[in-house]
Amino acid sequence: MKFSQASLLLLALLLALVLQQYYCASAGHCNRCTRRYRPVCASGRTFRNACLARCSGSVNFVRGRCLCLCPPGSNPVCSSSSGRTYRNACYAKCAGATETTPGRCSDSGKTGCASCSNWLRPVCANGKTYRNFCHALCRGVKSYHHGAC
């Protein structure tokens, strides 16, 4: 059976696309997911993109944000990763917050850099490496790039 160069190139492209879909979920590659916003819904939680959803262990997801059907009551929680206050735990979960504490962020004692997650996703700014973008921003950094210096 003889294949043309065009069909072999097409086959290679398709294989590359399939491998790319699963590359980020393999061990040690989750830190290579981009911050590009193309939301997907998996297990009732909205992820920033498909790579981040796969890295959390989700296999099945749909494109777009999850629909949040949360109770109307107000029982505020603070997201320790973003420092944002949500109406209740349901809204926080729908927004993708994974770690929350009861009460408004200003009431919980977590302010400034203390509200930042300790998730290791280094960024470089002014020749200094910060643990993640939140730690850089809370120290007044205006511009940074992903990765260690």
UniProtKB/TrEMBL annotation:
InterPro entries: Kazal_dom, Kazal_dom_sf, Serpin. Residues 1-27 form the signal peptide. It comes from the Eukaryota. Residues 60-107, 108-149 form the Kazal-like domain. Keywords: Signal. Gene3D superfamilies: 3.30.60.30. This is Kazal-like domain-containing protein. The lineage of its organism: Eukaryota, Metazoa, Spiralia, Lophotrochozoa, Platyhelminthes.
